[in-house]
From TrEMBL:
Family: Belongs to the short-chain dehydrogenases/reductases (SDR) family.
UniProt key word Oxidoreductase: yes
Keywords from the named record: Oxidoreductase
Pfam families listed in its UniProt record: adh_short_C2
Origin superkingdom: Bacteria
Name of the protein described by the UniProt record: NAD(P)-dependent dehydrogenase (Short-subunit alcohol dehydrogenase family)
Database matches in InterPro entries: NAD(P)-bd_dom_sf, Sc_DH/Rdtase_CS, SDR_fam
GO molecular function, one term: oxidoreductase activity
Length: 250
């Protein structure tokens, strides 16, 4: 029970890494507010996880909704110990062919969303004596990939913001770290495979991005988030924990 009596918010928890993290957190003794723009989906996950899970529909790019999310966690569970900023998405494109509106929309979720969630959660954590924040960045923050300029930029921003917040809030006993996944299977890749003329070739290329020649399952990344959120990582702050099957070692 590594998170016994802890209260957590996990954004982007209707599916994928966020859903897996919510399952692990509840199993390890936490009470969890699951947040996602997909209100129906996140409510179904919370119902499945039982009485120690609740759900809220949130657009993390909107300050008023994020403020309400943090208030909901405190009202429902009495405090806030852990914030896992996992909401995010990717789009294809170079800087030349990425539309400006698409760039702004992605940055609003992937980077501004982390800023807003921390902006509203940190004062609550500081007032109660501390807490921990785990952001989902990506290994592309350091290695880069083709045709994903906006996504790469946003995740590089998350990694840098993590370090800045770790320094700013260390004296308040608030640890801030990020996990940097490699290719992790999700509904995003399901859609890409469905629209690809050669699905098997596409999947083979995804696997080949890492030396161990496979992609991650969401729970493998969620395990890293769990560790960073727990007291087992009590001396870790400002760190990026890379879980990418060795891709960044190339």
């Amino acid at each position: 029970m590594r998170l016994k009596d802890k209260v957590a918010i996990i954004t982007g928890s209707a599916a994928g890494i966020g859903e897996s993290a919510a399952e692990l957190f509840v199993r390890e003794g936490a009470r969890v507010l699951l947040a996602d723009r997909n209100g129906e989906g996140v409510a179904q996950v919370a119902e499945r996880l039982g009485p120690n899970a609740a759900a809220i529909a949130v657009d993390v790019s909107r300050s008023d909704e994020v403020k309400r999310m943090v208030e909901c966690a405190v009202e429902r569970f009495g405090r806030l110990d852990i914030l896992a900023n996992n909401a995010g998405y990717g789009i294809p494109g170079t800087v030349v062919n990425t539309e400006e509106d698409a760039w702004d929309a992605l940055m609003a979720v992937n980077l501004k969303g982390v800023f807003l969630c921390c902006k509203h959660a940190i004062p609550v954590m500081a007032a109660q004596g501390g807490g921990t924040i785990v952001n989902t960045a990506s290994n592309v923050a350091t290695v880069g990939i083709f045709d994903r300029a906006a996504y790469v930029a946003s995740k590089g921003g998350v990694a840098a913001l993590t370090k800045a917040m770790a320094l700013d809030h260390a004296e308040q006993n608030i640890r801030v770290n990020c996990v940097a996944p490699g290719v992790t299977w999700s509904s995003y890749f399901d859609r890409m495979v469905a629209g690809h003329p050669d699905p098997e070739s596409f999947k083979a290329k995804l696997k080949a991005r890492s030396p161990i020649n496979r992609w991650a399952q969401p729970v493998e990344i969620a395990n890293a988030i769990l560790w960073l959120a727990s007291d087992e990582a009590s001396f870790a702050t400002g760190a990026m924990f890379t879980v990418d099957g060795g891709m960044s070692a190339w």
